[in-house]
């Protein structure tokens, strides 16, 4: 008798559900999906401190500097006569730069190897830097897929700030000399910023998302954050992500000089030129290089036994909506970016996710019966119950981190008088007593490597990941007279500090008022 009643009830409910679906004129809601966890499994660096992660990190922690005096040869004006080259050099008010060391010795960037690879046409310098950094990162991650499906599930997200300005300058000179017919057919492919991602994709056969962000000095961070989202939402299982830049040329330096953004006081002492948070700072030092990370879905990484450096826990973005080059004095844009990274978009506040989280945690018959009861009492649609049962293993139950749980911040601080102070106040606003008590270790690594523009966010994200991995927060170079915004406890690190780092934040802010913050945490 009970069985017959149960069968009749099931039949009635099925009929009611079918009639409801058939009579509805609107489409059903999209299927619900849950974000996947993303980890860092590989790192690659080309920086002013050297070529390679190990070389760069060792020199950074030991307080070495990659900034030197600029020479006329650095301006890349080979198409111009000697007199024009020297006149241009003399007119530049800033004559220091953070240049990638080139050569064939260990820790140097081998131009012959990366500019003249046999399997590709000659490429621009910023693309070569990206290829070199991506090669190291992929080898570090031990990810060289040969299976077609694995290649289709691997994507690239490498952005840049300015592309190849030197190529544009040479092309303009051809017009002046009435030699435009000699323009290379590879001119456009050499200057397009997305070609860094394109060349990496083509070299390894990656057919997943092929993406390139261009957001000035926040490019590297946005490229990593966007790649994280692509993995989270299932567009790829692995992403090669980062930023690249090669802007040490006559036109780029002249442009930043005219904008009064570059340092001019330390031409005779280059190693002291970049001094974030210091009272005697007067502008940033232009730099070049590339940073590439391998981002991977957690279970995918674990299944192949990959080394996990850190987990990407948050990605915050904001806009200043104020000025083309200057942040608002209240630091609201920086505050919003950091707060949104900390807020953690894994959170889910709806009743649906609350029930799903309960089911995941307990996975017992009583929870399933509860869901079925809610269905039969008209408190929960049948489609939702089915979804809950099918997604027991995928529903996230992570929450965001409290500011007090962050141990280290790699600040954007570029050594500009206005920007550094605004960011310091923003950090103080977000972290409050945690910062003013001295518990938060924060620093800017630009004292050692200068400002790498579109590559800065990626290189500094790698420094942040390495700080977690090695338990060392890097120093702020040239901090001899701290800005008055600081006090005894609230002070940037002037020496590298060994300490356990559970979570760390990396900030990147760019012209146009674009801001990005990346939150990394220990994989444990």
Description:
This protein has 524 residues and is of the alpha/beta class. It has 19 helices and 15 strands. It has helices at residues 2-23, 53-61, 82-91, 111-115, 125-141, 148-152, 165-176, 187-191, 195-204, 219-232, 250-258, 298-303, 332-343, 351-362, 365-376, 382-390, 417-436, 446-449, 456-470; strands spanning 38-47, 50-51, 67-69, 96-98, 154-160, 210-211, 238-245, 289-297, 310-319, 408-410, 441-443, 472-473, 497-498, 503-510, 514-521. Strands 1, 2, 5, 6, 7, 8, 9, 10, 11, 14 and 15 form an eleven-stranded mixed sheet that branches. Strands 3-4 form a two-stranded antiparallel sheet. Strand 1 and strand 2 (50-51) form a beta hairpin. The longest helix is centred in the N-terminal third of the chain and has 22 residues, at 2-23. The radius of gyration is 26 Å and the shape is globular. The model is unreliable at 345-364 and 392-399 (pLDDT under 50). Pfam families: ketoacyl-synt (PF00109), Ketoacyl-synt_C (PF02801). Residues 35-522 form the Ketosynthase family 3 (KS3) domain. InterPro entries: Beta-ketoacyl_synthase, Ketoacyl_synth_AS, Ketoacyl_synth_C, Ketoacyl_synth_N, PKS_Beta-ketoAc_synthase_dom, Thiolase-like. This is beta-ketoacyl-[acyl-carrier-protein] synthase I. Belongs to the thiolase-like superfamily. Beta-ketoacyl-ACP synthases family.
Question: Keywords, please?
Answer:
524 residues; alpha/beta; 19 helices; 15 strands
Taking the alpha carbons of the first and last residues, their distance comes to 55 Å
Task: Report the β-strand fraction as a percent range.
Answer: 15-25%
Average pLDDT confidence is: 89
How many strand elements? 15
Secondary structure: helix percent: 25-40%
Instruction: Note the overall shape.
Output: globular
The helix-and-strand class reads: alpha/beta
Radius of gyration: 26 Å
User: What profile does the largest beta sheet have?
Assistant: 11 strands, mixed
Q: Can you tell me the residue ranges where pLDDT is under 50 for at least 5 consecutive residues?
A: 345-364, 392-399
How many alpha or pi helices? 19
């Amino acid at each position: 008798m009970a069985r017959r009643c149960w069968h009749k009830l099931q039949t009635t409910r099925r009929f009611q559900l079918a009639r409801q679906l058939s009579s509805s004129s609107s489409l059903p809601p999209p299927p619900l999906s849950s974000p996947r966890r993303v980890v860092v499994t590989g790192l690659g660096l080309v920086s002013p401190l050297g070529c390679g992660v190990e070389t760069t990190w060792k020199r950074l922690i030991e307080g070495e500097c990659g900034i030197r005096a600029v020479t006329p040869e650095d301006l890349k004006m080979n198409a111009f006569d000697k007199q024009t080259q020297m006149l241009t050099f003399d007119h530049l008010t800033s004559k220091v730069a953070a240049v990638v060391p080139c050569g064939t010795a260990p820790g140097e960037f081998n131009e012959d190897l990366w500019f003249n690879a046999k399997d590709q046409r000659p490429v621009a310098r910023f693309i070569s830097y990206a290829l070199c950094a991506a090669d190291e990162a992929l080898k570090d991650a031990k990810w060289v897929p040969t299976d077609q499906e694995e290649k289709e599930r691997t994507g690239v997200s490498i952005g840049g700030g300015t592309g190849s300005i030197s190529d544009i300058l040479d092309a303009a000179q051809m017009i002046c000399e009435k030699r435009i017919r000699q323009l290379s057919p590879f001119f456009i492919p050499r200057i397009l910023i997305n070609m860094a991602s394109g060349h990496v994709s083509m070299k390894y056969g990656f057919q997943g998302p092929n993406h390139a962000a261009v957001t000035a000095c926040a490019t590297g961070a946005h490229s990593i954050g966007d790649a994280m989202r692509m993995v989270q939402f299932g567009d790829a299982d692995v992403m090669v992500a980062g930023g690249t830049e090669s802007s040490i040329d006559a036109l780029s330096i002249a442009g930043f000089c005219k904008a009064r953004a570059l340092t001019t006081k330390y031409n005779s002492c280059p190693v002291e030129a970049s001094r974030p948070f210091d009272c005697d700072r007067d502008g940033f030092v232009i730099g070049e290089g590339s940073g590439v990370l391998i981002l991977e879905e957690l279970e995918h990484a674990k299944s192949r036994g990959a080394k996990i450096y850190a987990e990407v826990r948050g990605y915050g973005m904001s806009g200043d909506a104020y000025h083309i080059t200057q942040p608002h004095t209240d630091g609201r844009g920086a505050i919003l970016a950091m707060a949104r990274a900390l807020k953690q978009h894994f959170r889910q506040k709806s009743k649906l996710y609350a029930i799903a989280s309960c089911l995941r945690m307990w996975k017992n018959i009583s929870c399933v019966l509860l869901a079925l009861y809610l269905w039969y009492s008209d408190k929960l649609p049948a489609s939702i119950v089915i979804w809950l049962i099918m997604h027991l293993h995928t529903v996230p139950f992570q929450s965001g981190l409290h500011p007090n749980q962050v141990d280290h911040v790699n600040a954007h601080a570029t050594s500009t008088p206005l920007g550094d102070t605004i960011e310091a106040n923003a950090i103080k606003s977000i972290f409050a007593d945690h910062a003013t008590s001295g518990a938060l270790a924060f620093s800017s690594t630009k004292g050692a490597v200068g400002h790498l523009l579109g590559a800065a966010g990626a290189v500094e994200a790698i420094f942040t990941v390495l700080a977690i991995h090695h338990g060392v927060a890097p120093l702020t170079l040239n901090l001899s007279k701290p800005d008055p915004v600081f006090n005894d406890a609230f002070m940037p690190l002037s020496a590298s500090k060994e300490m356990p780092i559970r979570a760390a934040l990396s900030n990147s802010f760019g012209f146009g008022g674009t801001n990005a913050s990346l939150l990394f945490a220990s994989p444990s």
